[in-house]
Amino acid sequence: MLPPGVPTEGSRPPAVGLPPAAEPQRAPRPEENPVGRTIAVGHAPEGVVADAQTGTVVVATRDPNELVLIDAGSGDITGRVPMPGTVRHLQLAAPGGPVLVPVETANALVRVDLPQGRPQPPIRTGTAPHDAVQAANGTVFVANELGGTVAALRGDQIVKVFTDAVQPAGTAAVGTSVGVLDVRKNDLTVYDADRLTIVGSTPAGAGPTHLVADRHGRLIAADTRGDAVRVFAPLPAPREVASISQPGGPYGIAYDVVRDRLWVASSGTNEVIGYDMTEPTPRQVRRFAAVQNPYTVGVDSKSGRLFVAGVSGGVVQVIDEVS
After folding, report:
1. From residue 286, how far is each of 37, 56, 134, 222 by CA, in Å?
2. DSSP single-letter state for residue 235
3. Model pLDDT, residue 323
4. pTM for this one?
5. 284 conformational bin, left if phi > 0, alpha if psi -120 to 50, beta if neither
6. How far apart are CA 80 and CA 93, in angstroms?
7. What is the DSSP letter of 278?
8. How far apart are CA 79 and CA 99, in angstroms?
9. Cβ contact 169:145 at 8 Å
10. Span 8-25, mean pLDDT?
11. 229 vs 85, 133, 305, CA distance in Å?
12. pLDDT category, 1, cuts 50, 70, 90?
């Protein structure tokens, strides 16, 4: 349900005939031992973000629904923060926090301050918020996956609702250009966070799910159903500029701004692959054996350390060999 008095933009196309949303592959227990070490965090961890400024890693778990706070250096669990529902995606609003926490079953966004993990009051944004990102001007865009809307917030107020999506999911921002993947239309739409307008959209593969931005001003999508990583320029209109094949249902994705390194987890092969992003086309430089069903990845840009959430084993894998 749209908030009263808030302006809207966009016309939602019919969902009839559209394919279902791409889902991660389910891999068996790894035959190869995962590298690094693991931290037992709780049931079904999915959603991880690492903040280099505070040295804090945040992981979302279920049953109970909570955020687990981990010291990025020692790997010690430093706290647990109850959440009012289930969470699958986490992003930093800015270095040092807060963490943007879309709580799907509460239809709300919660900002969580770091390093203490203090939650701010929830803000109702729409039906099943799946991902959220903050643009350079402070505007937060929330993809309400099952509501088919993208809500723009300034402070705690919704200032506009975009209604051009069918099932919006992964989000990322380059300056004041905000990209949102639609997992039913299988496209990428870019919004202008200053003008609060739709810039345009472009096809994004056979089944894109997750999105990040790099320091070159590009948006990068994991095309889960298409077994590929796709790179886009957001302006003057979004367009694909490069891609590379990655078998096994690439799903979790993270970017190290210091090393210009992209990390993508293949959900069906229990691997994490690293790419150099100097050029638009990703160049593979590393490959690691991961824990079972690695659905999300975080990277500490200070140390380069990786944190991989294994949804089946209830663990976070810590990988140090990333130079």
Report:
1. 18, 24, 30, 17
2. S
3. 61
4. 0.97
5. beta
6. 20
7. S
8. 15
9. yes
10. 92
11. 31, 20, 22
12. low
